[in-house]
Design goal:
The chain is an alpha/beta fold. The protein is built from 41 helices and 13 strands. The chain has a 5-stranded parallel β-sheet, with helices on both faces. The longest helix is centred in the N-terminal third of the chain and has 27 residues. The two termini are 64 Å apart.
C-alpha cells in the first residue's frame, strides 16, 4: 500500500486509488496516518474532526472507521481502552520518506558535506505537495498541519543554506521569494534570501528585501528584525562579503580526536536517547589526565545530529594553575555574541545575561559543552532552560548538587583499554607481539590516558624499539605520568625541549606559531615546525587549526622544567619578548581601527616580529581571535612587574573593546593597568589610564566613577604641566557631565579643552570640541552662540580634508539656521551635506540630511519639496532598520 499525506490525501493499492469517503472520514484517516503505528484516542479524533462535536461523537467515529476498514482492511484495528491504530509498514508513508531524507541532510550538514545535504533536502522537498485540504479539520488536526508546515519550512531553510554555500543561487532565490510571500514573519527565510541575492551580485535587491521584511515585522508584530538579520543587513550595506563566522557563529565544538579509544559504556550512557522533559545535564567527573575532555568531545560529535541548531563550547579553566576560573558572566557574554546579540545589547547584570541566554536557546536543539568546571556555582548560570537542550560538563569535582544531573564518573583506563590505545598509536602488530610487555607499559603509566598516549607516541617514533624496551625505559624513569612526561621530554632535541618549557610562560589558553616565535626568539616558520613536532609527540593538543594548547598537567610540568633549566634572566627575556609581540601587534591593529590614535611605545626586542594588518577587518579578526590571550597578557605583565607593558597594552586595546562592547574586559584590564602604573609612580601613565577607564565606566553608566576618574586625570596633568593630556581629560570630563545633564559644567570643560587644542595647533581635536560646544548651545536654543563655533569648526575641516566630519557639520549648521529662521541658508548648507554624504556613500547621513532638508523646505513654504525629501528619508531609514523612520513618516501626515 501507499499512503500520501503531503498533498491531496490518497491511499493506493498496487497503484490504484482507494475510495476514502467524505471530508470527516478523511480527517480521521489523516489523523491516524500522522500517528501511524500508534493508538489514537477517541478524544483526539473528536478534536481532530470537529470544532463543535456532536453529543455522541463515538457513534460517528465508529461509522467513519468502518468505512475506512473497507478500504484498508485489517490495517486499521481497535485498541480497547486506547482508541484506533493504523498499521503502516516501512516505505509506505510519504511523510516517513520526507523525514528520513531530512535526517540524512542534517547529518550531511554536520559532516560538512554540503553537496549531499543540498541533494537530500531537495529530494525531501520534492515529496511535498501541500497538506490535505479535501477534508474537514478540527483544532487538533489544524495544529498537526501547523507542525508539519514547520518541519517543511525548516527543510527549506536547510536547503537554502546548502544551496547558497554551493553558489546555486537560481535554485534558491525563486523558492525563497515564494516562501517569504507565504510566511512573511519567518526571519530565517528572509535572511537566506538576502544572502542569496547579495552573493549573486544583486545587492540592491538584497537591501530591498530587508526593507520589505522589516515592514512586515513592524506592521504585523510591532518588533524590529532580530540580530541576525540586522547584522547581515549591515554587512551588505558595508559591501563586505559576509563572514561565515559572523553569520553562523554557533558551531563551536572542538575538533574530534582521531585516536579516541575505549569508553564505550560511558559513550552509550551519554548518547542514549530518552524522554526529554527538561534540559539534560550530563557531568563527566574524574582526575586530571583521565580523558574527560576527549570523552565529552567525542560524545558531543555523536550527538550533533540530535542537536543540529546550536553547539556552544567554553573552557571554564576551573583548575588551570595560570588562569582564574572563568567568570560565568563573561562566558555568557561570549555565548550571547555567538548567538547574534550585539555587544551594546548585552545586559550588564549576570542575571539578565543568563535570562537572555535562556531565551535565545528556547526551543532550539542546542548542545552546550562546558569543559573544566570549577564547581556547581560556576555552571548554574550557563544552563539553558529549554527541554530541547543538552549540556555536557567536565570537572574534577562532583557536581551532584545540580538539579537533574546525570553523573558519569571516569576512572583511569582498564588494562584492556590502555593496551588498545597503545596498539592504536604504536601499531597493533608490535603490541600484539608482546601483550605482556604492553600490559606492563600500561601499568607503569598508571593506566592514565594522557600518559599512555605519550608512551605510545614515543614507541611509534622508535621503530627499532620493542614494547619491552619501552617498559624498561619507563621502569628506569619512575612510575606514573611524571615518568612518562620525563621520557617524552628528555627524548626531545634541545631546541624542542626549550620551546616546550618556554610555553609554560605563554599568556592565555593557547598559542600560535607567531606568539611562540616571539617567546623563543625564533621565526614563525621555525616555531611552527617545533609546535607541530610537539603536537605529533602528544605534548600539545589542538582544538582549532593553527592554535596549540598545553594540557593542565603538561603545563604544570613545563613550568617545572622552565624553573629548573632557565635562569631568571632568560625567563624574563622570554616573557618580555612575547608581551612585546602582543603589545606591538595590538598597536598595529589599533591604528587600523582608529587612525587618529596616538601613543608612544617602547622599542620591541629585535627578535620580535609583530604582525601587521592589510585593513580594518583583518585587524578586528585578529583582536577577536586573540581576545582571551590579550586580557591574560595584561594580567601577566602586571604580575611580573612589567608595568609599562601592562598599561601600554591596555591602552592599545580600548578601541577594540569599545567597538565590540567588551565592557568587562575593558574595565578589568584598565583596573589592572591603573594599579601597575601607580605601583611604579608613573603619573603620566596613571593619568592616561584614568581617562580610558573613565570612558569605559561612562559606557556602562557608572557616571559618578567616570567623572571621578576624569577629575583625577585632570589633576595629574595639571600638576605635571602636561597641556596636551589636559585636553582629552577635559573633553571626556565634559562628555561625562553632559551625559548626566550638568550642561554648564560640560560647557566649561569643552571651552577649556578647545583653548588648549587651539594653543597646541591640534586642529582635529579643536574641531571636535567646537562641535561639542556648538551642540550644547544649539540644544539649549542658543543658536546665535552655536553658529560661530560650527562655522569655525567647518573652516578647520576644510583644511584637514575630513569629508565625513565636514558633512556632519554642514548638516548641524543647517539645523542652526533653521533655528534662526534663515531657511535659505539652511537649505544651502544641508544641500552640501547631502551631496557629500552621497559622494562618500553614507546612507544614514543621507537619511538625516534629507529629513533636515525637508524641514528647511517646509519652512520656506515648499511643502511638495519637503514631502519628497521625507519620503526618501523614510525609505533610507527603513532600509537601515532605524526607528527614526516613524518620526519622519509622521511629518507626512
Amino acid at each position: 500500500m501507499e499512503f500520501l499525506v503531503l498533498g491531496s490525501l490518497a491511499v493506493r493499492r498496487d497503484g490504484t486509488p482507494l475510495e476514502l469517503g467524505g471530508p470527516r472520514q478523511r480527517a480521521v484517516l489523516t489523523m491516524l496516518l500522522l500517528h501511524a503505528n500508534e493508538a489514537v484516542s477517541v478524544a483526539q479524533l473528536t478534536e481532530a474532526v470537529w470544532d463543535s462535536p456532536p453529543v455522541s461523537p463515538e457513534s460517528n467515529l465508529r461509522t467513519y472507521v468502518a468505512g475506512l476498514r473497507r478500504a484498508v482492511g485489517d490495517r486499521l484495528v481497535t485498541r480497547p481502552g486506547h482508541g484506533y491504530q493504523l498499521t503502516v509498514r516501512p516505505g509506505e508513508l510519504d511523510l516517513d520518506g520526507f523525514d528520513q531524507l531530512v535526517r540524512h541532510g542534517e547529518q550531511a550538514l554536520a559532516d560538512s558535506d554540503t553537496e549531499a545535504a543540498a541533494e537530500y533536502f531537495g529530494q525531501a522537498l520534492g515529496k511535498w505537495h501541500g497538506t490535505p485540504s479535501d477534508l474537514t479539520a478540527g483544532p487538533l488536526l489544524r495544529a498537526e498541519f501547523t507542525r508539519l508546515q514547520e518541519r517543511r519550512l525548516t527543510a527549506v531553510e536547510r536547503f537554502a543554506r546548502a544551496a547558497v554555500e554551493l553558489g546555486r543561487f537560481d535554485d534558491v532565490i525563486d523558492r525563497l521569494r515564494r516562501e517569504t510571500a507565504q510566511h512573511p514573519l519567518r526571519e530565517e527565510l528572509w535572511a537566506q534570501l538576502m544572502l542569496a541575492l547579495d552573493r549573486s551580485g544583486r545587492r540592491g535587491e538584497a537591501l530591498e528585501t530587508y526593507a520589505t521584511a522589516r515592514k512586515h515585522l513592524v506592521e504585523q508584530l510591532g518588533v524590529e528584525p532580530g540580530a541576525r538579520m540586522r547584522q547581515l543587513h549591515q554587512v551588505i550595506l558595508e559591501s563586505r562579503a559576509p563572514s561565515p563566522a559572523a553569520l553562523s557563529a554557533h558551531r563551536q565544538l572542538p575538533m574530534d580526536i582521531a585516536e579516541f579509544t575505549g569508553r564505550e559504556s560511558e559513550l552509550r550512557r551519554l548518547c542514549e536517547p530518552g524522554p526529554q522533559t527538561t534540559v539534560v545535564i550530563s557531568a563527566i567527573e574524574g582526575m586530571a589526565g583521565v580523558g574527560k575532555t576527549k570523552l565529552a568531545v567525542r560524545a558531543a560529535h555523536r550527538l550533533v545530529e540530535r542537536f543540529p541548531d546550536v553547539q556552544l563550547w567554553a573552557d571554564l579553566h576551573g583548575f588551570d594553575p595560570d588562569e582564574l576560573p572563568a567568570d560565568p558572566a563573561a562566558v555568557l557574554e561570549s555565548f550571547l555574541r555567538l548567538l547574534g546579540v550585539p555587544g551594546a545589547q548585552i545586559p550588564e547584570s549576570p542575571a539578565d545575561r543568563a535570562a537572555l541566554y535562556r531565551d535565545r536557546l528556547a526551543g532550539k536543539r542546542a548542545l552546550v559543552l562546558l569543559d573544566n568546571a570549577a564547581g556547581e556555582d560556576q555552571v548554574r548560570p550557563l544552563l539553558p532552560g529549554s527541554s530541547t537542550c543538552l549540556v555536557l560538563i567536565t570537572s574534577r569535582r562532583s557536581l551532584l548538587g545540580l538539579d537533574g544531573v546525570m553523573s558519569v564518573s571516569l576512572d583511569v583506563f582498564t588494562p584492556e583499554e590502555a593496551v588498545a590505545l597503545l596498539a592504536r598509536i604504536a601499531g597493533a602488530d608490535r603490541v600484539n607481539a608482546d601483550r605482556e610487555a604492553a600490559a606492563r607499559v600500561a601499568e607503569l603509566c598508571g593506566h592514565l590516558p594522557i600518559a599512555v598516549a605519550l608512551a605510545a607516541k614515543r614507541l611509534a617514533r622508535r621503530p627499532q624499539w620493542t614494547v619491552m624496551d619501552l617498559a624498561a625505559q619507563l621502569e628506569r624513569g619512575g612510575l606514573g605520568a611524571r615518568g612518562v612526561f620525563d621520557l617524552s621530554y628528555q627524548a626531545l632535541p634541545d631546541h624542542q625541549r626549550r620551546l616546550f618549557r618556554l610555553l609554560g610562560l605563554h599568556p592565555g589558553e593557547d598559542v600560535t606559531a607567531e606568539s611562540a616565535a616571539a617567546l623563543a626568539g625564533l621565526t614563525a616558520y621555525e616555531a611552527e615546525d617545533l609546535l607541530e613536532t610537539l603536537l605529533d609527540e602528544h605534548l600539545l593538543q589542538q582544538h582549532t587549526p593553527g592554535r596549540y594548547v598545553l594540557h593542565d598537567l603538561l603545563r604544570a610540568y613545563a613550568v617545572e622544567q622552565l624553573m629548573a633549566a632557565e635562569p631568571p634572566p632568560a625567563r624574563a627575556t622570554a616573557l618580555r619578548r612575547v608581551l612585546d609581540w602582543y603589545l606591538h601587534t595590538s598597536w598595529n591593529s589599533a591604528t587600523r581601527l582608529n587612525p587618529q590614535r596616538k601613543l608612544e611605545l617602547t622599542t620591541a626586542d629585535p627578535a620580535v616580529h609583530p604582525r601587521t594588518f592589510a585593513d580594518r577587518d583583518a585587524a578586528l579578526l585578529w583582536c577577536d581571535t586573540e581576545r582571551a590571550n590579550l586580557v591574560a597578557a595584561v594580567r601577566d605583565a602586571a604580575e611580573h612587574g612589567l608595568a609599562q607593558q601592562c598599561w601600554l597594552l591596555a591602552q592599545c586595546l580600548w578601541d577594540f573593546f569599545n567597538l565590540r562592547k567588551h565592557w568587562t574586559d575593558w574595565l578589568e584590564t584598565h583596573t589592572v593597568a591603573l594599579a601597575a602604573a601607580r605601583s611604579v609612580s608613573d603619573r603620566s601613565a596613571e593619568g592616561l589610564t584614568l581617562i580610558t577607564l573613565g570612558i569605559g565606566l561612562r559606557e556602562v553608566r557608572r557616571h559618578d566613577e567616570a567623572i571621578e576618574c576624569c577629575r583625577q586625570a585632570l589633576t595629574i596633568f595639571r600638576a605635571t604641566g602636561d597641556r596636551a593630556r589636559q585636553e582629552p581629560a577635559l573633553n571626556n570630563l565634559g562628555i561625562a557631565y553632559m551625559t548626566t545633564g550638568r550642561l554648564d559644567e560640560a560647557l566649561a570643560c569643552f571651552e577649556q579643552a578647545a583653548e588648549i587644542a587651539y594653543e597646541l595647533g591640534d586642529q582635529h581635536t579643536e574641531a571636535v570640541l567646537l562641535n561639542n560646544i556648538a551642540l550644547l548651545h544649539a540644544d539649549a536654543g542658543r543658536f546665535d552662540e552655536a553658529l560661530p563655533r560650527y562655522l569655525r569648526a567647518l573652516e578647520i575641516r576644510h583644511e584637514v580634508k575630513d569629508p565625513y566630519s565636514e558633512a556632519i557639520l554642514l548638516n548641524n549648521i543647517g539645523e542652526v539656521y533653521r533655528g534662526l529662521l534663515d531657511f535659505p541658508a539652511a537649505v544651502a548648507h544641508v544641500d552640501r551635506a547631502l551631496e557629500t554624504f552621497r559622494r562618500i556613500g553614507d546612507r544614514y547621513g543621507q537619511a538625516e540630511s534629507l529629513d533636515n532638508l525637508g524641514l528647511a523646505l517646509d519652512g520656506l513654504g515648499d511643502r511638495r519639496g519637503a514631502e519628497k525629501c521625507w519620503l526618501e528619508s523614510v525609505t533610507l531609514f527603513e532600509e537601515l532598520g532605524e526607528p527614526k523612520a516613524d518620526e519622519v513618516r509622521a511629518r507626512l501626515g
